């Protein structure tokens, strides 16, 4: 699988985007949805499977009586179907996304796990665009908190793995781009900083590696009152001594 190939092959399908922001595209055009309908689609996409009506109503409208929550769910289903009747499959017990609805979160998860398993022999630097955004970062939903953090951890590991794979192939500028995406997401994460510093060292840019380590130490000291690990200092020190 390649991110670019997936995007091209599914261009005609309805698309649901949850990374960075909510966006629904039907017949090649962005479509607007009421907030409750957005929440329903997002929950179904995040959970990746059909959900019982009682579970959906209880999760999305946990602060109202069950009868009202079920009515809200019926209304949200109607709102989605008013945009496109093929986006959902429903019966009296369950609601699910239609199999033809393309979801960017699924792409990101699939490609991330392929990278981390070592299944990708020719990593695509365009994967950075699939992996650099958080799951609905502006949404304030209790049910989303754990899934958002899980997705953040997966994408961080995948970006670091992608950077390392590109380094081994000698594709250092692309490796730096992937590592930068990880550092932007979590500046205090040492494994992300190590990926970026290793990419700099791989292309022979020792001065940038030293500069990045200095920036990282300043951030750590300001935020946590600590310094980078001895291993990271040793990595840069060895390169600096031979530079």
Task: Report a brief summary of the structure.
The chain is of the alpha+beta class and 243 residues long.
Helix content: 55-70%
Strand content: 5-15%
Mean pLDDT across the residues is: 92
Structural class: alpha+beta
What is the end-to-end distance?
A: 39 Å
Output the strand order for the largest sheet: 3-2-1-7
Shape: elongated
Tally of individual helices: 11
Main beta-sheet annotation: 4 strands, mixed
Radius of gyration: 22 Å
Order of helices and strands: HEEEHEHHEEEHHHHHHH
Low-confidence stretches: 4-9
Strand runs, count: 7
Structure notes:
The chain is an alpha+beta fold and 243 residues long. The protein has helices at residues 3-9, 35-47, 53-60, 66-83, 104-117, 127-131, 145-168, 172-185, 190-202, 206-224, 230-242; strands at 15-17, 23-26, 29-31, 51-52, 88-90, 94-97, 102-103. Helix 9 (190-202) packs parallel to helix 11 (230-242). The chain is elongated and about 70 Å long.
Keywords:
243 residues, alpha+beta, 4-stranded mixed β-sheet, 3-stranded antiparallel β-sheet, 11 helices, 61% helix, 9% strand, elongated
Give the SSE layout.
Layout (H helix, E strand, L loop, with lengths): L2 H7 L5 E3 L5 E4 L2 E3 L3 H13 L3 E2 H8 L5 H18 L4 E3 L3 E4 L4 E2 H14 L9 H5 L13 H24 L3 H14 L4 H13 L3 H19 L5 H13 L1
Parallel strand pairs: 1-7
Antiparallel strand pairs: 1-2, 2-3, 4-6, 5-6
Helix pairs in contact: 2-4, 3-4, 5-7, 7-8, 7-9, 8-9, 9-10, 9-11, 10-11
């Amino acid at each position: 699988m390649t991110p670019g190939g997936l995007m091209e092959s599914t261009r005609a399908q309805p698309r649901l985007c949850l990374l960075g922001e909510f966006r629904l595209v039907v017949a090649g055009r962005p479509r607007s949805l009421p907030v409750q309908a957005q929440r329903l689609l997002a929950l179904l996409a995040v959970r990746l499977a059909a959900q019982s009506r009682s579970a959906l109503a209880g999760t999305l409208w946990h602060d109202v009586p069950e009868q009202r929550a079920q009515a809200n769910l019926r209304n949200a289903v109607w709102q989605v179907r008013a945009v496109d009747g093929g986006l959902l499959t429903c019966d009296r017990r369950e609601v699910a996304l239609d199999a033809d609805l393309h979801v960017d979160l699924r792409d990101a998860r699939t490609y991330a796990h392929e990278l981390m398993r070592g299944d990708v022999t020719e990593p695509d630097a365009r994967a950075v665009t699939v992996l650099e955004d958080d799951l609905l970062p502006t949404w304030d939903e209790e049910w989303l908190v754990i899934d958002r953090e899980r997705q953040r951890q997966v994408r961080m590991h995948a970006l670091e793995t992608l950077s390392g794979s590109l380094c081994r192939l000698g594709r250092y500028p692309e490796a730096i781009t992937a590592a930068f995406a990880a550092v932007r997401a979590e500046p205090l994460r040492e494994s992300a900083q190590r990926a970026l510093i290793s990419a700099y060292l791989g292309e022979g840019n020792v001065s940038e590696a030293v500069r990045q380590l200095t920036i990282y130490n300043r951030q750590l000291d300001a935020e946590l009152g600590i310094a980078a690990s001895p291993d990271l200092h040793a990595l840069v020190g060895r390169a600096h001594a031979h530079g």
